[in-house]
Amino acid sequence: xxxAEERDQAETIATACRLLAxxxxxxxxxxxxxxxxxxxxxxxxxxxxxxxxxxFTEAECVRKVPFVGAGMAKGESEYETPSELPIHGEMYIxxxxxxxxxxxxxxxxLVCTLAGLPLxxxxxxxxxxxxxxxxxxxxxxxxxxxxxERYLGQQLAAAMGTKHVCIMRGHGITTVGRSVQEATIRxxxxxxxxxxxxxxxxxxxxxxxxxxxxxxxxRRLRATQDKKHQAHGQDxxxxxxxxxxxxxxxxxxxxx
Length: 256
Description:
By secondary structure, the protein is of the alpha+beta class. Helix content is 48%, strand content 12%.
């Protein structure tokens, strides 16, 4: 990754942090987003001396650090790496296909784990991407501790396996992707799934998957759409990311 590419990636990470805060998936100064740089380093949102929370994240807060380590960002005296750096570093080490990691604390996902509510594909066309996460299976990391040691990061990665999302009981969520955009959108879709699940439970409903017939319909639909978008250079992920960034920009413009 060139210096220019690192600067662009830092801007994307900063945008993702502000977006997650705007949508309520992170609060105050907790939560972080990272991107792989090479086989040993990542760019990650760090805390500076003027720390004000993720909703105010700028690219300056994003620093290049090694996968393994803690404390101040390399060569820096002002920026401190997240204490839960192993969430990111161990994921990159153990899963070379992963290029971005999001760790957030969304409320509905948290409550679902505490209430023992399973995340199933309970809806279809309402949000087929959130449904797809449930269809693939949402693993749960059973511990509520801070992931500050490498062995805990390794345990989290093992719990997630080859999946793209994981709920951390009494803690939050971790999502991964080929890009920051993909990992961020997955976090948003996972919280949508959890929010609807929680609403159904509160309404006294039963948490049931849609029919196997409908699940097969959506599996075929996703496969067809993927081929179509690849053939025509269209990308739902790009559209979805652009949508949320536009919402964030409108919100920030109104805040000024």
